[in-house]
C-alpha cells in the first residue's frame, strides 16, 4: 500500500568535504557495505521506487551500484554543480510521479523501515503537506539543522546559520521528509540561497509551508537510527552501532563471542549456532561459519566458508576459500585464492595454501607451501615441504594422489604427479613423477668418513693456540693477518 503512494529521492551528489579524503563518502563502507547501498536496499525491500541523485564522482558511485547489481533498481539523475540539498531535489523533478515524495539524505545508513512507516502514517493521519523526522541530540553536536518552533511557526535553522544558544535547541532535523507532490512542485523554486553559505537548503521548505499556514507534521526517532555521517569520526560511531546490532543478533542465535567489542563483523556474514568467535577476529563479507566452529583469536576470514565443527586456531588468514567440516587450521596458516579443503583436514603452523584442492583427512602440520595443487585424501605432507609451482615465467600443477606420504623438507618441482600410496624420502627434490606405491628419492647419498671428526678437532685446537699467541693487531686488515681475522 505505502509502496504505491511513495517514491524515494536519495540525495548522494554532495562533495563530502568534511571527510578530507577528496573522495565521495557515499562509497565508504560500513560493516562491509557501501553507505549509498543502505537506503537503496531499505527502499528496495519496501518496494518503494528510487531516484538517486548523483553528482560529485558519480562514476565511483555508479561503479558500486553495478558491482552490487543495484543500478537496475535506481532511476539515476545528475546534479551538475553541488549548490545544496534543495538544488539536488530539484534535479530529480522529471522523475516525480507518486503522490508523496520521500526525500532522504544518502549519508544516514542506520535508518529503519519503522521510521519510514511511522512518517507515512503520521503524514496521512495529520493530513499534512510536509512531514519530517526530528530527533534529540547532544546539543553541542554542531552539524545538524535545529528545529525552531513556537506556537505558530516551525523552521529549521542550519548549523552554519544558527546564532542562538545550542543547549536551548537540542531538537534536530534528521534529514528525512515526506512531501505532497503538488506542494513540492509548486514551492521548491521559491527556495533562495542561504545567507552565510549561499547554498539552497531544502530545509527552507519547512518555513515556506509554515508561513503559508500549511499543516506540518513531525515524528521523533531515536538519534542512533538517524545519525548522519559527515566525518570519519561519525562513520566510526555509526559502524560501531551497526556492528553491535549484528553481534547482538548472532548472540541471540547462539554464537559466543569472546570480548565482543574487539570483533569486526560485516553485514553479509553468517555464523552457525554453538560457534565461538575469539577476540580480534575479523569476519568479512561473504564469510559463512558453520555450527559449533571455533574461530580463535586474531584470525581474519574474508569470503571464507568454514564447515561445521571446524577449528580455526589463532592468527590465520583465510580468503576466498572453503574448508570442510571437523578440520583444524592454524595457528598462523594462510589459505587463499579459491582453495578448497575437505573434511577433517589438518593444516598447522606457518602453512600457506594457494589455489589448491585438498582431499579429506589430509595433513600438512608444519611449515609448508602448497600452491596450484590437487591433493587426494589421507595425504601426509612432511614439515618444510614446498611445491615449486612457478618456473619464473609460468605456473605448473602438482597432483598428489590418495594416501601418498611426502617426507619432510621435500621440494616438489611442478609439473609433477605423485601416485597413490607413494612415498618420497625426506629432504628430496622431486622432479619426476612418482608411480603409485613407489618410493621417490631425490637427494645425494650420504657418505660417512670414519674418524674424521677427531682429525678436525685437533686442527681447530692448533689454530686456536696460534691465535692466542698473536699480539694485538689494530683494526686495519693486512694480507698478513687475514688468516687471523677469518678464524676469529
Ligand atoms: C543536512 C540538513 C540538516 C540535517 C542533516 C541531518 C540541509 C540543508 N541540511 O545537513 O538540516 O540536520 O542533514 O544529517 O539539508 N547533497 C547533494 N547535493 C548537494 C549537497 C548535498 O546531493 O548539493 C547530498 C549529500 O551527498 C548528502 C545529503 O545531500 O548525502 C545531505 O548533505 P550534507 O551536506 O551531508 O548535509 P548536512 O550538512 O549533514
Ligand atoms: Ca550529512
Task: Name some characteristics of this structure.
single chain; 488 residues; alpha/beta; Spore Coat Polysaccharide Biosynthesis Protein SpsA, Chain A; UDP N-Acetylglucosamine Acyltransferase, domain 1; 2 domains; 16-stranded parallel sheet; 11 helices; disordered C terminus
Write the layout of secondary structure elements.
Elements: H1 2-5, E1 6-12, E2 29-30, E3 33-34, H2 37-45, E4 50-54, H3 58-67, E5 74-78, H4 85-91, E6 100-105, H5 113-126, E7 130-136, E8 146-149, E9 154-157, E10 171-180, H6 181-187, H7 204-211, E11 216-220, H8 223-226, H9 232-252, E12 256-257, E13 264-265, E14 270-271, E15 276-277, E16 282-284, E17 288-289, E18 294-295, E19 300-302, E20 305-306, E21 311-312, E22 317-319, E23 322-323, E24 328-329, E25 334-336, E26 340-341, E27 346-354, E28 357-358, E29 363-371, E30 373-375, E31 380-381, E32 386-388, E33 398-400, E34 405-406, E35 411-413, E36 416-418, E37 423-424, E38 429-430, E39 439-440, H10 452-469, H11 482-487
Bound molecules: uridine-diphosphate-N-acetylglucosamine (UD1) and calcium ion.
Calcium ion (CA) binds next to loops.
Amino acid at each position: 500500500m505505502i509502496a504505491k503512494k511513495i517514491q524515494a529521492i536519495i540525495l548522494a551528489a554532495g562533495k563530502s568535504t568534511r571527510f578530507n579524503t577528496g573522495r565521495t563518502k557515499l562509497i565508504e563502507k560500513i560493516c562491509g557495505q557501501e553507505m549509498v547501498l543502505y537506503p537503496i536496499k531499505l527502499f528496495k525491500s519496501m518496494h518503494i521506487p528510487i531516484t538517486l541523485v548523483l553528482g560529485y564522482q558519480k562514476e565511483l558511485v555508479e561503479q558500486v551500484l553495478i558491482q552490487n547489481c543495484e543500478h537496475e533498481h535506481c532511476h539515476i539523475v545528475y546534479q551538475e554543480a553541488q549548490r545544496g540539498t534543495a538544488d539536488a531535489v530539484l534535479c530529480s523533478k522529471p522523475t516525480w510521479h507518486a503522490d508523496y515524495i520521500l526525500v532522504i539524505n544518502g549519508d544516514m545508513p542506520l535508518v529503519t523501515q519503522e521510521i519510514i512507516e511511522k512518517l507515512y502514517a503520521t503524514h496521512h493521519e495529520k493530513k499534512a503537506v510536509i512531514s519530517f523526522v526530528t530527533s534529540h541530540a547532544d546539543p553541542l553536536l554542531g552539524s545538524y539543522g535545529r528545529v525552531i518552533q513556537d506556537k505558530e511557526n516551525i523552521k529549521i535553522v542550519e548549523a552554519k546559520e544558527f546564532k542562538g544558544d545550542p543547549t536551548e535547541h537540542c531538537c534536530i532535523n534528521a534529514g528525512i521528509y515526506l512531501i505532497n507532490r503538488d506542494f513540492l512542485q509548486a514551492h521548491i523554486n521559491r527556495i533562495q540561497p542561504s545567507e552565510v553559505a549561499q547554498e539552497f537548503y531544502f530545509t527552507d521548505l519547512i518555513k515556506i509551508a509554515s508561513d503559508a499556514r500549511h499543516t506540518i507534521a513531525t515524528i521523533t526517532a531515536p538519534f542512533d537510527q538517524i545519525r548522519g555521517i559527515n566525518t570519519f569520526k561519525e562513520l566510526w560511531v555509526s559502524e560501531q552501532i551497526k556492528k553491535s546490532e549484528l553481534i547482538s543478533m548472532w548472540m541471540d542465535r547462539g554464537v559466543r563471542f569472546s570480548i565482543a567489542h574487539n570483533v569486526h563483523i560485516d553485514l553479509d556474514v553468517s555464523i552457525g549456532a554453538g560457534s565461538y568467535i575469539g577476540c580480534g577476529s575479523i569476519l568479512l563479507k561473504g564469510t559463512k561459519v558453520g555450527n559449533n566452529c571455533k574461530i580463535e583469536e586474531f584470525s581474519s576470514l574474508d569470503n571464507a566458508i568454514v564447515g561445521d565443527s571446524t577449528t580455526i586456531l589463532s592468527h590465520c588468514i583465510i580468503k576466498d576459500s572453503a574448508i570442510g567440516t571437523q578440520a583444524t587450521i592454524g595457528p598462523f596458516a594462510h589459505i587463499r585464492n579459491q582453495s578448497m579443503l575437505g573434511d577433517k583436514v589438518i593444516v598447522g603452523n606457518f602453512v600457506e595454501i594457494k589455489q589448491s584442492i585438498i582431499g579429506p583427512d589430509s595433513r600438512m602440520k608444519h611449515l609448508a607451501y602448497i600452491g596450484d595443487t590437487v591433493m587426494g585424501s589421507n595425504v601426509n605432507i612432511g614439515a618444510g615441504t614446498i611445491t615449486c609451482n612457478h618456473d619464473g615465467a609460468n605456473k605448473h600443477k602438482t597432483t598428489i594422489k590418495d594416501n601418498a606420504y611426502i617426507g619432510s623438507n621435500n621440494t616438489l618441482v611442478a609439473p609433477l604427479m605423485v601416485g597413490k600410496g607413494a612415498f618420497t624420502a625426506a629432504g628430496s627434490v622431486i622432479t619426476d613423477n612418482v608411480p603409485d606405491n613407489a618410493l621417490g628419492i631425490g637427494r645425494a647419498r650420504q657418505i660417512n668418513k670414519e674418524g674424521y671428526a677427531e682429525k678436525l678437532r685437533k686442527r681447530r685446537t692448533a689454530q686456536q693456540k696460534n691465535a692466542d699467541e698473536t699480539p694485538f693487531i689494530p683494526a686495519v686488515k693486512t694480507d698478513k693477518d687475514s688468516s687471523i681475522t677469518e678464524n676469529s
